[in-house]
Request: fold
Amino acid sequence: MSLEENLKTLQDRHEELGALMSTGELSAVDFQRMSKEYANLSPMVEAIVELGKVRDDLEGAQSMLAEAAGDPEMRELAQAEVQDLKGQLPELERNIQVLLLPKDEADDKNAILEVRAGTGGDEAALFAADLMRMYQRFAEREGWKFELMEVNETGIGGYKEATAEISGRAVFAKLKFESGVHRVQRVPETESGGRIHTSAATVAELPEAEDIDIQIRTEDLRIDTYRAQGAGGQHVNTTDSAVRIVHEPSGIVVQCQDGRSQHKNKEKALTMLRTKLYDHQRQELDRERAQSRKGQVGSGDRSERIRTYNFPQGRVTDHRINLTLHKLDRVLEGELDELIEALRSEDQAARLAELT
Reply:
């Protein structure tokens, strides 16, 4: 099927879905399914309509140019319009190509964020806490819900490890390239000699799995309850509200102690477990795809160093795309849009190159 035939098929399907949904005869399940498909097709149809309009306008301008041979003023106007419309075509066509790229089924999902201190002791833990706050502020800017699920504090404001759930529109699509090793270069407050130290923390962004994605057998689980503890070992409360779940076939262990309700902590822990099992499946598929890919943003390996935050120079550098921004303070306040859009554009370019 040619590209034009493919675009016509998509337009026809969009119209068909609109007509079916307007009948009022669909079941709630069918209506929900078709609504989602209709919404997914709408940006593509809008792009096709816009491209068709520019092509029609170009044809009209070229006809006007051909008819204006004896009128220099009209010919100049027609030539300018032809050049303007021709200049719009490549971007419109590329936009359609991007929309036609296979969609990551996880893009619309919520995300589980994990941040762990790496090399660097207390300074690494303080940096891990900085990163968690950075993502919380970004979530607030996006209008997403950010909820801490598990925090292992150091007692001086640092995080040995922390887990959060981020809910909202297209969360994973925007945060999927944040996974990897983040490095910080700065002078610790405890450093009397003013020497710059290098520390690191690992970030993992996992698409949150739903019941339909991963089925978990009760007999495969070992569930323990215990009293939640805060920094320094003190008890947060006096009931066994914290929950630890071991998935015995895989050996994956998850725990949640953020809430005071054992039932809610168990629900959150099961969500984390489903997410880790779903992510394991995706990682396996990604490894298979990577063998045949010509290009990709980074290796996808979460042990890969992806970004450096240099405090003395006030800069952030993403090593995968060689992008440096001299606005470290604003990035740590959650202004991640420029980094995220650059990474998504690079990924789109790499995937488009695979099709040529």
Observations:
- Residues 28-67 form the longest helix (40 residues).
